[in-house]
Amino acid sequence: MVVDLSQIVKAYDVRGVVPDQWDESLAELFGAAFVQVTEATAIVVGHDMRPSSPGLSAAFARGAAARGADVTLIGLCSTDQLYFASGRLGLPGAMFTASHNPAQYNGIKMCRAGAAPVGQDSGLAEIRALVGQWAQQGAPAPVARPGTMTERDTLDEYAAHLLSLVDLGSMRPLKVVVDAGNGMGGHTVPTVFKALPVMLVPMYFELDGTFPNHEANPLDPANIVDLQARVRAEGADLGVAFDGDADRCFVVDERGEGVSPSAITALVAARELAKHPGGTVIHNLITSWSVPEVVRENGGAPVRTRVGHSFIKEEMARTGAIFGGEHSAHYYFRDFWNADTGMLAALHVLAALGSQEGPLSRLVAQYDRYTGSGEINSTVADQAGRTAAVKEAFAARDGVAVDELDGLTVTTADWWFNLRPSNTEPLLRLNVEARDEATMAKVRDEVLALVRV
Q1: DSSP letter at 5?
Q2: pLDDT for res 398
Q3: Which segments constitute the Alpha-D-phosphohexomutase C-terminal domain (predicted)?
Q4: What is the pLDDT of residue 11?
Q5: CA torsion, points 336, 241, 273, 88, in degrees to nearest 10?
């Protein structure tokens, strides 16, 4: 095949269409390159339920073993289960998944020992260079003593570790609908939830990487319609939806209304600060004003970062932060090797709801204080030019603060917006928040009029 690595090696992972853009022969080269760059003598490898995942992960393992690394194969797992194995076993790891992308896609999320991320600036560029070289010239000869391959089931250990991190002792019985979207939540939820006082109503738990019911991307409102209806029909206390590799979770309340990931970030932050008084909490710059407010109210120190898991994890390591949250429903925990786990966030929500008598809508109202637009994407030919026009229109106004930590952020006493370019598509992404709906709509429409000329 003609290999164009620029199309599949992204900022944080490998991702592309199988077999058009990459296949098992390329996966084997990635395995060899991963071992060479990380200098690993042993690694752990897991995969999701996509039809191509078993073959790709096995090829990666062969490439790694050919370079002398012993490979622990944990088989079907969620991404956060792979991070658990990397942390608990102290090994670099590789997870085969394309998360919420359609069925024809697959990818690799790689990490160093202790779930430390591998991205463009932390090894992925070197891995790409080696794979490109070997794809042209042929793979290097196997080492004299190839590594071994062993299988290990980590699901029970993963569940036990998560449950040890949340106090669930005073939790009242709850009825919970979970939509796994035919993804890896169908594999992990039954084991994690079996010890809880929960009446579980499962939806789409059958592992099926063709996603026959809906895309496994709960941030798209179209993909939680079934969950919302089922929560209302069942009279459930809440609903939880996981994405394809089950590292993100999205929550709906007892009315079937979506709960903002910023509100979940604030709720979990308050609970983590109760365990770790005075701790630092990381949030990206498109989370709600509510998040740093709640962190300060609970005696913590909020730290604002760029959007993207590599930035969150870097800041967590630098500051010793106890928790980090993103508006994309990624939640990161110091007690989980600074890695993201939607399951642990879900357990915090269950514990918080189950320890008091009110409904979830009332509980989260204290953490959801403002009106947000959600992320609005606009296709533009000139990202820089449109951003400059927006900056010019707002920067000179009284009471306006401008920063460019990640795209353009404009802030006043009553509202803020962030406009930032996509790294992979000709898009500008707009997020607006204000103290009331009318103000939010006015600011949103003014910015979009400048972007969409």
Answers
A1: G
A2: 96
A3: 375-449
A4: 84
A5: -10
Task: For residues 130 and 132, give the distance between their C-alpha atoms in angstroms, rounded to a whole number.
Answer: 5
Q: Rounded to the nearest 10 degrees, what angle do helices 24-38 and 125-137 cross at? A: 130
b/e 30-59 (16+ beta carbons within 10 angstroms → b): bbbbbbbbbebebbbbbbbbbebbebbbbb
**DSSP letter string over 184-236?**
THHHHHHHHHTTSSEEEEEES-S--TT-SSS-S-TTSGGGGHHHHHHHHHHT-
Residue 265: alpha-carbon gap to chain centroid: 13
What pLDDT band is residue 86 in, cutting at 50, 70 and 90?
Answer: very high
Which positions ≥6 away from 269 have C-beta within 8 Å?
A: 281, 291, 294, 295, 298, 300, 323, 325
Count of C-beta atoms within a 10 Å radius of residue 303: 18
Annotated catalytic residues are 99
Prediction pTM value: 0.95
**389 CB contacts (<8 Å, ≥6 apart)?**
450, 453
Which residue ranges form the domains of the chain, and what is each CATH number? 5-153 (3.40.120.10), 157-259 (3.40.120.10), 261-345+358-365 (3.40.120.10), 371-451 (3.30.310.50)
Nearest by Cα to 34 from 118, 98, 90: 118
With a CB cutoff of 8 Å and minimum separation 6, the contacts of 362 are none
- Reduced to 3 states, what is the DSSP secondary structure of residue 428? strand
Residue 309's pLDDT is what? Answer: 81
pLDDT-above-90 percentage for the chain: 93
What's the CA angle centered on 452, arms 449 and 453, to 5 degrees?
A: 85
Cα separation, 41 vs 15, whole angstroms: 25
Question: What size, in residues, is the chain?
Answer: 453
Which of 100 and 38 is assigned the larger pLDDT?
A: 38
pLDDT of 129 over the 90 cut? yes
